[in-house]
Amino acid sequence: MTGAGVRVGTLYGVGVGPGDPELITVKAYRMIRECPVVAYPKKRKGGKSYAHEIVELYVNPEEKEMLGLIFPMTKDPVVLEREWGKTVEACWEALKEGKDVAFVTEGDPNLYSTFIHLARLMRELHPEVPISSIPGISSVLGAAAALDIHLADGDEQVGIIPATADKEAMRQAIEHHDTIVFIKVAKVLDPMLELLEEMGLGGKASVVTKVTSPYELVWRDARELKGQELEYLSLMVVSK
Predict the structure, then answer these.
(1) How far apart are CA 56 and CA 76, in angstroms?
(2) b/e string for 24-35 if b means 16 or more Cβ within 10 A?
(3) Closest by Cα among 170, 176, 173, 175 to 189
(4) What's the pLDDT tens digit per position in 80-95?
(5) Strand 65-69 with 37-41, pairing
(6) Dihedral, CA of residue 227, residue 231, residue 234 and residue 240, to nearest 10
(7) Any idea which of 36-45, 84-93, 99-108, 141-150 has the lowest mean pLDDT?
(8) Would strands 65-69 and 158-162 be described as parallel, antiparallel, or unpaired?
(9) How far is the C-alpha of 17 from the C-alpha of 36, rounded, in Å?
(10) What is the tens place of the pLDDT at every residue in 172-213?
(11) Which site among 37, 55, 142, 199 is 20 to 30 Å from 89 CA-CA?
């Protein structure tokens, strides 16, 4: 409760899938229809995120309070604290009035999602806010479908790893799993391809960009991409 006995609204993290509007769950659909406020990641340079595009197919924006949130793309701790504080307070303005807020996110809200940090900071600054999440289909699962491969069977092990420039860490990830999904691979694509060649796995990697969306691109042999630049929403699947 907050001032004058008003109920505090609930913050929902709602996964709306990796890009295909049909890959939204029935529960996610109901949640964005019922919540009076729909929050979504807003791009600084215009254009709409997949999550925003998907939501507008299922609800009339004029009937909702649409709350565009900008998430800082920086490692500067001062900027991060300031901008994240603004994001949390923007949600709090609606929540303290008793309005439920559905924060829509691509994929799943609890797997490498901006909702994770949003929820964590909301708990710190406004612990009275109830927080719940609605699972969504991850791009990892979308990639397996696009490539027509299985991720794990029986006792096989699968890893979901953010690709980094730490060559030894990437080598260990490959060695210790039967299948590895490297997310955020665009920024280190060539070093990853070089490592795979060193390990004799050059022909075992595939790449998918903007999976399940109308803009999806698939390279079944990642070696075709050497020297090229990829979109940020790209992942690599290494299946040994």
Answers:
(1) 33
(2) bbeebbebbeeb
(3) 170
(4) 888 889 999 999 999 9
(5) parallel
(6) -10
(7) 36-45
(8) unpaired
(9) 21
(10) 999 999 999 999 999 999 999 999 999 999 999 999 999 999
(11) 55
Across the chain, mean pLDDT equals 93
Q: Collapsing DSSP states into helix, strand and coil, what is residue 234? A: strand
Which residues are CB-contacts of 85 (< 8 A; sequence separation ≥ 6)?
121, 125
Q: 100 is written with which tokens? A: 């439920």
Whether 101 contacts 11, CB under 8 Å = yes
Owner of token pair 């060559």: 167
pLDDT for the residue numbered 48:
76
Q: Which residue type sits at 147? A: L
- Residue type at position 131: I
Instruction: Find tokens 């990829």 and name the residue.
Output: 230
Token couple for 217: 């691109």
The pLDDT, as a whole number, for residue 133 is 98
Residue with tokens 């603004």: 86
